[in-house]
Design brief:
The protein has 261 residues and is an alpha/beta fold. Helix content is 43%, strand content 16%. The protein has two domains: 194 residues, 2-enoyl-CoA Hydratase, Chain A, domain 1, CATH 3.90.226.10; 47 residues, Lyase 2-enoyl-coa Hydratase, Chain  A, domain 2, CATH 1.10.12. The strands form two sheets. The protein has a six-stranded mixed β-sheet with strand order 1-2-3-5-7-10, with helices on both faces. It has a four-stranded mixed β-sheet with strand order 4-6-8-9. It is globular. It binds acetoacetyl-coenzyme A (CAA). This is enoyl-CoA hydratase.
């Protein structure tokens, strides 16, 4: 098994079908240095290929999910280096994952940390979670989706306030604005996120990935295009054995036995 410097990786849950990624750079509050995000991209790739993995949970420590991109690493970056290396572009591997990804956020999710959480499909927060896009305080702007995903998730006025002031929002505010789906006590958060992964994992992985892609299309296209995509994808489920099994099981009043075909 590959070893990691900046993350911990396990398969958890009763059936060991949830891939757990724990960001593990405690001295830097999980600042997302290039090496850390490369490890995250690689394990996302591995979990995606691993048929035993139904869902993925990304978490950090109780103090910090992640305090942002690594400021020390980028302090002396230049425009030309950003362009030639397409700085931060590999982060998008998380958003591109075909399997469901749940962010379990305790403590700080700032800058790139908030953006990483927003690349996930569902955000669960611990009571102490704090979200923010403080890039403006550093003389820069969000660079991994903060100015694009945040307004789509919480609307323009809230997003603009967060991006232009750098103010943090707590878990309750984040839930109220729709950024977070549920809040849990700090010590329960990760196990509740794993339970969510297990619950999703009872469904057909094939159909789950079609549903995920369809919801994501709502964020990436117009309503007309999205409705068309959804309709054709819905029609597409009729080409699968799992759709037939799901409806037949309902009619026969028995649990469905999905085979991912
Ligand atoms: N990058 C590099 N190092 C960081 C870091 C970051 N984003 N955030 C924290 N650290 C380091 C600190 O430098 C410190 O290291 P040293 O002990 O070597 O000095 C260590 O982590 C602990 O941090 P603090 O002493 O600051 O801890 P605190 O509890 O007093 O404060 C905090 C916590 C409010 C989160 C504060 O650390 C902070 O403001 N961090 C920066 C947050 C930020 O601006 N994030 C945005 C980054 S830019 C970005 O993300 C761009 C993008 O869009 C992708």
């Amino acid at each position: 098994a590959p070893s990691y410097e900046f993350i911990k990786v396990e398969k958890v849950g009763e059936k060991k079908n949830v891939g757990l990624i724990t960001l593990n750079r405690p001295k830097a509050l999980n600042a997302l240095c290039n090496g850390l995000m490369t490890e995250v991209s690689n394990i996302i790739e591995d979990f995606e290929k691993d048929n035993s993995v139904a869902a993925i949970v990304i978490t950090g420590s109780e103090k910090a999910f992640a305090a942002g991109a690594d400021i020390k690493e980028m302090q002396n970056n230049t425009y030309s280096k950003c362009i030639s290396g397409n700085f931060l572009s590999h982060w998008n591997r998380v958003a591109d994952c075909t399997k469901p990804v749940i962010a379990a956020v305790n403590g700080y999710a700032l800058g790139g940390g908030c953006e990483l959480a927003m690349m996930c499909d569902i955000i669960y927060a611990g009571e102490t979670a704090k979200f923010g896009q403080p890039e403006i305080l550093l003389g820069t702007i969000p660079g991994a989706g903060g100015s694009q995903r945040l307004p789509r998730y919480v609307g323009k006025s809230k997003a603009m306030e967060i991006v232009l002031t750098g103010d943090q929002v707590n878990a309750v505010e984040a839930e109220k604005m729709g950024l977070v789906s549920k809040i849990f006590p700090v010590g329960e958060l990760v196990s509740r996120a794993i339970k969510l992964g297990e619950k999703i994992g009872k469904n057909s992985p094939l159909i789950v990935s079609m549903a995920k892609e369809s919801v994501n299309t709502a964020y990436e296209t117009t309503l007309a295009e999205g409705l068309h995509f959804e309709k054709r994808t819905f029609h597409g489920t009729f080409a699968t054995k799992d759709r037939m099994e799901g409806m037949t099981a309902f009619v026969e009043k028995r649990p469905a036995n999905f085979t991912n075909e």
